[in-house]
Every structure is written in C-alpha cells, then in structure tokens.
Design goal:
The chain is an alpha/beta fold. Helices cover 41% and strands 18% of the residues.
C-alpha cells in the first residue's frame, strides 16, 4: 500500500507523455514554447469528472482543481467547454473563488453561456423556444416507446437530455430512443446530440467546435490543447484540425474510454480518463514552472 509520501512523490514527477503523432508533438512543443498565448480546452464529464450513473452526482476529480490552479496562471486561458449549463459546471467543478483560476472560463451549453472566474457571472442569450416545447412532450414520447424504466431525464435549461445508463439494457434503450427523439427534436427546430448512453436535444448552430474555434480566434491564441472523451467532443477535435490549417499548432487528447473509440482513433495522445487528464495538467504546470 502506498504512503502519502509515495503519492506526493508520484504527483510531483508526472512526466509529460509524448504524443503519438507529429502534429501532436508540434502542438505540445508550441504550447510549451509560448504558454502565454496558449489555450487549454477541456470537456467536463468524462474528462475532468468521472462518468457516474446520475449526472447530478458528477463532480470534478478531487485533484482537478489544484492541477488547474497550478497550470492556469502560466498560460493564456483554461476553457472548460461543456454541454452543461455554465453555472452547473462551475458548481460541480468547484471552480468559483479558487486562487490561481483567474484565467479560467466555462463555455456552457456548447458556448451559448459563458462564465469567467474574474467576474463570477454567467452571460447568455435568451433560450430557444423549442426546448420548452420538447420538455413538455418528452414524457409522452418515452411512454409510447416504453422506455421509462431506468431512463433519466436531465434538465439542462437550454437543452434536455435522456440518459439510458441505468436502464435494464442501456444500449437497447439508447437505440430505441434515437429515432423518436430525433423526430421530436426536428419538429421543434432542435437537434439530437448522442453521447455515452445519453441523447441530448438542443438548439442547432452551437457545438464544442464552434465554441472552441470562436474563443481561440477571440483571444488570438498561438497554440491549443483540447481534451475530451465523448462523441460531442468530435467537433472540438475538428476545430483543432481547422486551427492547424490556419497555422495554430494543436494537441488532441482523449480521456480514454472503452465506450467511445472515435476520439481515441483521432487523438494525438490518449490518457487514462480524468485521472490521466489531471496527471497531464500537473505535468504541464511542472514543465512551465
């Protein structure tokens, strides 16, 4: 059994892993060479926070905030890019009022909301009217499909999500709901975003890629790292590829998952879930100290 001394020593070392691709190595080198112009973008669920059966019980890895507080002052910005409401991500992440996180912001609802640590306030446009209509009809749809047992409806303010992780057959329930929920979303001008045993109904026009690309352009970053774990992170991976064509080096990190392989196949670097992401953040902070 390890002792506290063993743990501290391991954490202090946290060597930076070497990306598997040339583009990834160039992205990491650019970040380290000019950290004051670098953005580190991070998904929340599955990346900073372990996946749990009840999304309301999700919390950031206990060592995530200390790692972020060590890294954030050394780079231009840490951007948490999430489908959750910004305020919820701030609460579940424990980001508010933490010394060292002045360079952190949360782009919630795929960038429709923004919270920054300096002001502590959320800015956002008016919600899409289709979300309220979908919310009202959703129980009837689930009832007709016979998918109530074990499903979980998550209210997200500007979106609504149906989780099947707790169903008797999670994957079968997920597949049974795809077409009915796509039809419901279409009728009210929304889209369906599939994830890890979750289907989210939300307004079109915003995704993690749009949010990340817009923010990197906004602050004129010269390097970007993005870490995610789910299908909803693929647009952010696409955004990093776009930035590379514009001359902004980037590093794509997959917070490893056996449920979703698409990101793993695209990533320059794969780490072992939120624990691995925390280790990467600590390694970057130590390298830049």
């Amino acid at each position: 059994m390890g002792t506290p001394t063993d743990t501290d020593a391991t954490h202090s070392m946290d060597p930076l892993p070497t990306p598997a691709t040339q583009a990834g190595r160039e992205g990491l080198a650019a970040l380290l060479a000019n950290p004051g112009k670098a953005v580190v973008g991070l998904d929340f669920d599955g990346t900073l926070a372990p996946i749990v059966a009840d999304p309301e019980q999700a919390r950031a890895h206990p060592e995530a905030v200390p790692a972020l507080a060590a890294l954030a002052p050394r780079i231009a910005s840490v951007a948490v890019v999430t489908g959750r409401p910004a305020g919820v991500a701030v609460r579940y992440g424990g980001f508010a009022g933490v010394p060292g996180l002045e360079h952190l912001l949360v782009l919630g609802h795929y960038g429709a909301e923004r919270w920054d640590a300096v002001s502590g306030e959320v800015s956002a446009p008016a919600p899409h009217p289709g979300v309220a209509a979908v919310r009202a009809e959703l129980p009837g749809v689930l009832d007709r499909v016979g998918a109530w047992q074990g499903t979980w409806i998550e209210e997200k303010g500007r979106a609504v999500a149906v989780h099947t992780r707790r169903a008797e057959d999670p994957q079968a329930a997920f597949e049974a709901l795809r077409a009915p929920l796509a039809d419901l979303a279409h009728r009210h001008g929304l889209i369906v975003e599939p994830g890890r045993l979750v289907l989210e109904l939300r307004p079109p026009g915003m995704d993690k890629g749009v949010a990340l690309l817009s923010y990197v352009h906004e602050i004129g970053a010269s390097a970007v790292l993005y870490a995610g774990d789910d299908l909803g992170d693929l647009p952010a991976f696409d955004a990093v590829d776009t930035l590379r064509t514009e001359g902004v080096p980037g590093l794509l990190v997959c917070s490893g998952s056996d449920e979703v392989t698409q990101l793993r196949d695209r990533a320059d670097l794969v780490v072992n879930g939120p624990e691995g992401v925390v280790g990467l953040l600590r390694g970057l902070a130590a390298q830049l100290a």
